[in-house]
Design brief:
Helix content: 40-55%
Strand order of the largest sheet: 8-7-6-11-10-9
Structural class: alpha+beta
Strand content: 15-25%
Low-confidence stretches: 523-527, 570-579
Radius of gyration: 61 Å
Number of strands: 23
Oligomer: single chain
Length: about 725
Amino acid sequence: MHPAQRNSLRLLQWMMAASLALPLALFVFASAVSFASISETADREIERALDVAHEHALKVFETIDRSLSEISEIIRDIPDAEIVAREQALHLRLKQLVASLPQVKSAWVFDAKGHALVNSLVVPAPGIDFSDRDYFRAHTGGDIGTYIGEVLTPRPPYQGAPFFGVSRRRPSEDGGFTGVIQSSVLPEYFENYYARIGREPGSFFAVGRADGTVLARFPPVGRDVHLDRAGPSGKQISASPKAGLITATSPVDGVERRLGYQRLAEYPIYVSAGLETSTIRARWLATMGQHLIFGAPATALLFALLGLALRRTRHLHFEAEKRQAAEEALKHGQRLEALGQLTGGVAHDFNNLLTVIRASVDLLRRHDLPEARRLRYIDAISDTVTRAAKLTGQLLAFARRQTLKPEIFDVGRSVQTLSEMISTLIGSRIEIVILGPEEPCFVNADAGQFETAIINMAVNARDAMEGRGRLTIAVGMAASLPNAAPLPQHPYGYVAVSVADTGSGIPPDQFERIFEPFFTTKQAGHGTGLGLSQVFGFAKQSGGEVTVNSEVGKGSIFTLYLPRTAGSGKSRQMPATDVEATDGRGMSVLVVEDNAEVGRFTTDALAELGYATCLVSSATHALEELAIGADRFDAVFTDVVMPGISGLELAQQIRRDHPDLPVVLTSGYSHVLSEHGAYGFELLQKPYSIEQLSRVLQEAGRRKLQAAASEAP
């Protein structure tokens, strides 16, 4: 799987994780914010309910306090005996007073010994000793003001609801103790009131004394409750005795509540209100549940869609891999087919060439062969070698492995120079039209390969017109390559050379094959099918492009694009033919060739011309010879492709160690040379003639002599 595919799958997986993690993180954050908000709202509700309960309790106790004051005024300065004598009238007054106070069960007046003198319940007062009640005992030691007692149950024969006493001392004129005035207050009055205002689920209310004794509570528990002042809740209340908010678990029912408490002014009474924490949590859960109703399906849908996308992407990647495998298999088959076609074409053409050479050699071995025929066979062998070299050059050009010798030249002037040769090649019945550019168009390319490409296109056009028609060669400029070719665009644009003919055109089914090597529609013996392949390879290797437009019956237009360069160059001269071999007497050449036969023929040929030669089979041996004495040699002639140290590496080493010793490279093919050039060394392509070799060596020796002369004093 390609990295891009893995990255896309990994991205979808991260998105799936994020589709869960991000909503979850947002939900957790929203939950925390919501819980804090709901808790604050609950605290405000508790404070409002506490205000109501506090106001109610304060009014109740103030009312009871006033009723005690009123009873005290009724019996002021009346001795106990007279109170007993007037019991009936006083009973009615107390009964009337209690009837106006729903929170009060009864009112009592006790003497100094704890016996009832008068009450609001019955006449006569019962003869029961009440001196053991807390509301009586609290006043015997001194005047403590209003006393609020614990919750008590009625003493037989009285029955009814529990009560707690609110009492005052009956002082004499001299400040002595004469008895107690008491009101029996109903806790159920508070409980009923709290039940009415505490309709919210989990509500809690209570009223109790400062010592922790609970007087009334909602919800009721049916037994006495006492708060431990040494416990956690008692300590928190002691730390803030006036008012506060606490969270506590009740020891009575084990329920955790959020409570607010407040003390009644001037009374040792606390009022509290609260909510169960479970109720607060239930509100929070209900709120979050509403979010989940919408959020959970949306998250699940997003996760499902991403899962579906992941599954679909995996399937598409799997299908893409299968399709890619099938395409690779198809391309492999096509490459094998092209290789077979290429191999067959090369074998066919080389067999033809070898047949000529073999036949010429066999005939040359005859002793009675006339001199004229001997010379003809020698010329046939020479011509055949030239054709073979051209064939390999065309193959290398198509493969973009030809060693190019780029130079800056004017395309327009080069085409004008070629026009006469093209006219000779295509015949007089074809009209040639040359359309030059308005300004010079310079390129940096191999001029020889360029001329070969133009000639190949012209010959292809001639064959398409069957020797009759019009051939138009136009040179112009283009800002970019056509058809959005996937190549980096050149900053100076491109020079376009188009070759148009009025021939038969190219059928659409042949468009994809016209640049294939050895593909031709010509009759056998009329073409190798390598002409357009050379054009294609030269264009690609030079950083350009070649395009074709054609319509059957109306002709074709081949356009060669080459990168334009700034600056000026020289007009391309036609290559000169081989000159006579020069005499090499006085020159010594170190020949480096790993092929024994090639090396032997090279040294023999040079010896025939008078050169002194030394043949070695590797670059290592060549360096050893130079180490003995480099001054013995006037030049080094080395093959490029050799095992171990290559000829190019050898030449670079000689340039460093012996900069005045010229080096000439030779190669039939080298991918290093095709990609990077000859690094400034003279290059002689194989196969070469003895005349070419002699001329190159003489030129190298001449440069050495000139350099030595310029350094002489």
